[in-house]
Every structure is written in C-alpha cells, then in structure tokens.
Amino acid sequence: MRQTIILLLALLSIVVACKRRSTQESEDKQAKQLLQGLWTTDDTEEPAMLVKGDSIYYPDSASMPVRFWIFQDSIYMQGQNLNGYKILKQTNAFFSFNNQNGDEVNLFRSSNKDLMASFGYHVYAMNLFDKSGSDTIVSTDMGFYDCQIRTCTTSERVIKSTYNDNGIEVDNAYLDNVSTLTLRSRDSVVYKHDFLKQEFSNYIPRDFIAHCILRNLEFDRADRKALFFNATIGIPDASSGYVVEVRITPDGKMSKRLR
C-alpha cells in the first residue's frame, strides 16, 4: 500500500511538472510584455508590484520575487508553490484578476519614478538579527550546575509561504537557528554541544521538518539523575510545533524523546 501511494505521488508530480512546462512553453508573450512596469493598488499610488522580465517583485523586503507567466486567461506565479490567478481584464494601464480567495484585485500602471525606491532592496530573512540566550544556575542533589544557552541564526534558509494584503501568496525567507548548550559544574565543562534541527529529524515527519526551524532550546527541570531541556522545532512564526526533550546526565551522556 505504501509503495502504491509513493508511486501515485510520483506520477502526480510528473503530471504537475508537465502541465507547468506546457503552460510556460505556450505562454502569452504579448500579455506578458503588456504587464511590464510598476503597478499600484489604487489612486493613492500605493506600490503593489514591479514586473521586470520574467519576475514579479513586491514592495516588501521580506517577500521574495517570483517567476511568472501568462497562459490563456490566467497569470501563473511560481514561488515555493505554483499558483494560478484568473485574469479579469488587462490593458496597458489596468490589470484585474481574482486572488486566492476569489476577491477581485485591481492594479493601475504608474509612472511615478519615486515609487521605484520601494523595490530597491535585497531580500532579507525575517529573523536575520534574532538572538537569544539564558544563563541558569540549577541546584540539584548532584550539586550546582550552570546552564548557558545561546541561540542564533545559521546560513540555512527556510521558506514560509503566506499572503500579502492583496491576497497573493508570497514567500518569506527565514534562517534556521543553532542552539549552543554549555553545561558547567564547579567551573568544569560537563557538556557542550551545538544543536541543529536535523538532530531531531527522527521525531518529526520528514515532509514537515524541511519547512521548520529550531526555534529555541531552554532549561526545563532537573531530577536526581539528570538535567532536562526542551527543544522546540516548528514553522517560523507559528504558534504550534514539536517539543523534544533533551536529557543530559552528570557524566555528559545525552538522550532525547518526543514530549
């Protein structure tokens, strides 16, 4: 049964890839050329998107540009996911389509060069400058322990899809984290390790962990035999996630379990 499901998913991926290739090869180049330029949402000239070549850029330094093409009566945008939006009307000065929820989005061409500054940025990760740390002294039957934790971003990028004000799916970039735990007793290092999300992959669905980051590592409790820490792995800026308990004994041995 498992092999059948895997085969069906593989066939579905092939069908989707073939359909995407077909629409790209048969794209309406005239309509694509007509869309080139700067577009605003209304008469207040709030910048909505900049169309340049094969890409659409957004006035948000956290949103990644997407590849696009027009085929028949729809505009397709290829980010982390492929989305198609039905075009309602297109002229040289006006572009209207239905967003993800079926709401009508109306865009107006603008020649205001001052608005170009809204697109003059490099896309940065939402949590680029995030750092956290804690230094906890724990009194146990085994003695006093100094638990120092430092969490900061790595270079590994994780993409999270969300929706902008116009109901268009956009991709926001995040960086994964590394949590460094240093455990000392009487000024001697008992345990030191850099924790990455990959170390917890056995406790998290394979198709889920690629979209997650290691949010944090924090001290939880201690008993007569060990100290316990909680590692939280989840979708960036989401309220839920997986919590894996990390158990460390005074001799520096470590074990994990899903909470």
TrEMBL record:
Lineage: superkingdom: Bacteria
Protein known as: DUF4738 domain-containing protein
Source organism of the structure: Prevotella micans F0438
